[in-house]
Amino acid sequence: MEKKAGNPKTIRENNQKVLAHYLFEHSPTAISELSRIFKLSLPSIYKNISQLIDHNIIKETGEGDSLGGRRPMLFSFNYDLGYIASVDLKGEYLRLALANLGLKIIAREDINMRDFKNGNDLINKGIESLKTLMKANSIAQEKLFSIAVGFPGSINNITGQTYMLPVWLDIWEGVNIKRLINEEFPAVNVIVKNDMNLAAIGEMRYGVGRGYKNLIYVSLDMGVGAGIIIDGCLYEGSRFASGEIAFFKTNMGSNTTLEDEISIRGITNRIVRDMEKNIENRLERFLINNKRILNFAEVKKAVIEKDPYILGVMKDVSERLGFVLYNISVFLDNELIIISSKTIDMGYDIKKDLDEIIKKNTLIEVKTEYASLNQDEVIYGGFALSLDHILDKIITY
Predict the structure, then answer these.
(1) Over the stretch 332-373, which tens digit does the pLDDT of each residue have?
(2) Are 149 and 231 found together in one domain?
(3) Residue 1 maps to a domain
(4) Cα separation of 175 and 184, whole Å?
(5) What would the pLDDT profile of 56-80 be if each residue is shown by its tens digit?
(6) CA pair distance 368, 150, nearest whole angstrom
(7) Total of domains in the chain
(8) What domain range is 173 assigned to?
(9) Together in a domain, 31 and 88
(10) Above 80 in pLDDT, residue 388?
């Protein structure tokens, strides 16, 4: 609690912010416990709590257990003070989630990106859907405090300019997501970050990465990317482009990139090329929709049956990714690699291969884990950054 000399108003606001932050993480708590923790008198704690109640930040939540005297009154953070939205643009769908400040998800919606020819229309549809969800749940626009968006490319945090865009969905050229959202929600804090960066934050704060200070989050999906946490903080680089392993070259004499070789798009293209060489056309079953989309069900069946062709493809993908992750780990000395991979949907345990590659080649111990937030790591990373902003400004709400 604030002990420094200064303006009484500033000291009071700082004290109230500390109390609000504590109750955000430790609700409900009795005033006597707050007095003990912060070493302030009961009247002083009660005065600050009362003012926080007047601002609707804190609320009474009943009585605690008695230890022989009066039952203590309990106080909790008001998680319905406001609401936050998070958007994941990582895959083939715009995935939208609306939650209160306690991260209770109130509503969700998925929008197929392939139904849109440009990013402006897709973002506007997302805005329209958010407004609909808010109306359906009786949430006034002034109660929406923050919107976070995970974008599959690099974003300048200052200008909102996007670059290093995904090649598999050509709708984002010239789209300024932050500006589009702020035009509809001018009073709302808008955060637009690389999707892999949000995923890394999400897993570090709420998932399998809790307790680790140095980790890499890597995703193998329609594209390939990574998010990097160093000393507990997101590392974005000088141009906000860190973690773009999609552009790694595995052979300097080749025009292809890592993403061309191991992404779902890359695996699909490989099967198409191999099918053209296969006079029996036995590989046709692995493709659907005019041989443009991978048939996950057939690939999974082939993995279970230990089909040598599919297992060979999966092994090659593992080796290429493992080589990259090994080199990154040697360079960064990270403790953990978190893996999000579509190969799971194919019934293939890529983590087992990566463990073998890393253990065989590195002299330092690097743990690997699958992502743990049920494909919501980008969503929760957005929630985390929104809450950081809101709690920093909490007394002004």
Answers:
(1) 999 999 999 999 999 999 999 999 999 898 788 999 999 999
(2) no
(3) no
(4) 15
(5) 999 999 887 766 667 888 999 999 9
(6) 23
(7) 3
(8) 83-201+377-396
(9) no
(10) yes
